[in-house]
Amino acid sequence: MLEVHDLTVRFGGITALDSVGFSVWSGEMVGLIGPNGAGKTTLFNCLTRRYDADAGEVRYEEENLLAVPPHAIAGLGIARTFQNLGLFGHMSVRDNILVGAHHTGGAGFLTAALWLPRVRREEARLRAEADSLLERLALTEVADHPAAGLPFGTLKRVELARALVGRPKLLLLDEPVNGLNSAEVEEFSGTLRALREEFDVTVVVVEHHMGFVMGICDRVVCLDFGRKIAEGPPAEVQRDPGVMRAYLGTAI
Ligand SMILES: Nc1ncnc2c1ncn2[C@@H]1O[C@H](COP(=O)(O)OP(=O)(O)OP(=O)(O)O)[C@@H](O)[C@H]1O
Question: Could you tell me which InterPro entries the record lists for this protein (predicted)?
């Protein structure tokens, strides 16, 4: 589904990604780990076209992803969540989720402005889809509540719902369990595992929580200072001497 070749991104004198390469097969859940500043978010930002690459190639379902404009990414079936949440605080939880479905609507500006029957049908379909996700992620009770002021664990689920409502094929999760307590991490893992099957979605997840990564991922890629230093099954990567060195002083 996804092939990254020799991907390089520089910011002035910093090489955030240095000839990184790996593949993701359809249906896999791949963990992307590495110490702070390793380049994980930069990689996501390249895949979603927020950042331009200085060199390298990314193929997504045979398409040259680096030539795709940022606004067309969602339409290709790629969705992401953000490390520090990308929600609109003043908007309700339901509306935040509906934002994630905007690209699935086929109505043009004029049809939408005139509120024609086709638009009403489409709106009803999207709302039904959002409602089913609200229920699935235990968010129905807060559906009409503004996002601002809700507990962090709840907002993490809203982010996931917003990413899923557009029915993505590839889901990029940036630190989805960061800030959650251990019971919430456990619950989130179970939900994600089930949703992955239900939505038939391929997942790449950036996360520092090793218990989560090791428990849920099929394969793990480790970056350090912009370079890939290990790749393989979770247990193998966890024992890798280079990975241990990169995390020296950090329990993994
Ligand atoms: N927009 C930017 N401008 C300048 N430097 C940047 C920018 N984005 C990232 N960097 C730098 O690139 C390097 C990689 O950062 P990145 O955020 O990708 O790391 P990360 O692995 O996601 O870290 P963390 O686990 O702390 O989120 C860091 O040195 C960072 O300071």
Answer: AAA+_ATPase, ABC_AA/LPS_Transport, ABC_transporter-like_ATP-bd, BCA_ABC_TP_C, P-loop_NTPase
